[in-house]
Amino acid sequence: MTSKTQHNTELLRFTTAGSVDDGKSTLIGRLLYDSKSIFEDQLEAVKTATARRGEEGVNLALLTDGLKAEREQGITIDVAYRYFATPRRKFIIADTPGHTQYTRNMVTGASTANVALVLIDARNGVIEQTRRHAIIASLLQIPHLVICINKMDLVDYNQEVYESIRDDFEQFAAKLDVHDVTFIPISALKGDNVVERSQNMTWYEGPTLLYYLENVHIGSDHNFIDCRFPVQFVIRPNTDEFHDYRGYAGRVAGGVFRKGDKVLLLPSGFTSTIAKIDTSDGEVEEIFPPMSATILLEDDLDLSRGDMIVRENNRPEVTQDLDLMVCWFNERPMQLRGKYTIMHTTRQVRCLVKDIQYKMDVNTLHRDLDDKVIGMNDIARITIRTTQPLFVDSYRKNRITGSVILIDEGTNETVGAGMVVG
């Protein structure tokens, strides 16, 4: 895996979380504005809107608040995705609502993120919402957490205020499964430590937010050890030129696959050798997450969508009984003994909710063993039984092969997202 390949394709996904008025919109606006990632006409529109509101300068929150009008009309906007790029990296921001009733939105936006930005208002310190967002980030195993202590201008850029909030959060985070936490004191409004270093906080010696986002090491966020290749579809061109071609297309979910590797096919248990690997850029010698490719095998074996190519001595668990931490998305509560469709990698089967073990209080981590009513935005541990075996790893080991979504069979709505407990 060359650094050149990494460099050309490296995309960082990050999610923002914070309670209402913590300054998320201003922070994202500041990132886009100071990194010169907005168009002139957008900037002019924002300047005009700022002037119309009787405000001075540029209200950067307006760059990202264009969706508020729709929200006010009762149109639900789940997660707003924004894209920007600097010479070093490409970025996708998942901006999720901060209110308590939007836990499901945060889960959706954060499920593929490398980094979670949690905003704290320097005047309020660590509040219940902060703890909730940190708990969800830890539950979703987001590899990197950045605590942006915002509005430092409103506390006179006071070092003691920053250190007190940092210590408070560290004490709480010690109970969580988070490994990489970075604290940055910022003022999104004034631009301190967002893109440019702050002249007002010379006591802070760490990176600016953009420098952190451009340089945080995300190469090892993927699992490069356990080889997993879920087959999405089989390619068999019906032409004379390609009449012998039989390729298995999909996206690498884990490990490194190389031409000549001996592989095991699930569920059949047959083994074969990789004869060739094709990508949109032509034939390659090796593939790794999150590349999409087509694998050709030396033997003429029958694979179909939902099957998985793995290594003989490193297999996922093949099981019909799964323990899941699930976030419920639907207004209709989860039904014990209820039947749902489950999607796991490229496989779709049916399942039955066998047991609701407990409901988790997302503010305190308390497990309620008696309350078995799992409503919208609740997080619970459940046991399900599937109609056919799935090839799973624990979510902690692999976020792709360890996650599922639950679908209502009647309405076809996504009703929940689950993480396999290992």
Low-confidence stretches: 1-7, 69-77
Decide which structural class fits the backbone. Answer: alpha+beta
Q: The CATH topology of the largest domain is what?
A: Rossmann fold
Largest sheet features: 6 strands, mixed
Helix content: 10-25%
Name its key features.
9 helices; 19% helix; alpha+beta; 422 residues; Rossmann fold; disordered N terminus; 3 domains; Elongation Factor Tu (Ef-tu), domain 3
Question: How would you describe what is shown here?
Answer:
The chain is an alpha+beta fold and 422 residues long. The chain has three domains: 3-220, 3-Layer(aba) Sandwich (Rossmann fold); 229-310, Elongation Factor Tu (Ef-tu), domain 3 (Beta Barrel), CATH 2.40.30; 317-420, Beta Barrel (Elongation Factor Tu (Ef-tu), domain 3), CATH 2.40.30. It is 19% helix and 33% strand. It has helices at residues 3-9, 24-34, 40-52, 61-64, 68-72, 103-110, 128-139, 159-173, 209-215; strands spanning 11-17, 80-85, 90-95, 115-121, 144-150, 181-185, 229-235, 247-251, 257-258, 262-266, 271-279, 282-284, 286-287, 292-297, 308-310, 317-328, 339-344, 347-360, 367-368, 379-392, 403-407, 414-420. The chain has a six-stranded mixed beta sheet, with helices on both faces. Strand 5, helix 8 (159-173) and strand 6 (181-185) form a beta-alpha-beta unit. It is globular and about 70 Å long. The chain starts with a helix and ends with a strand.
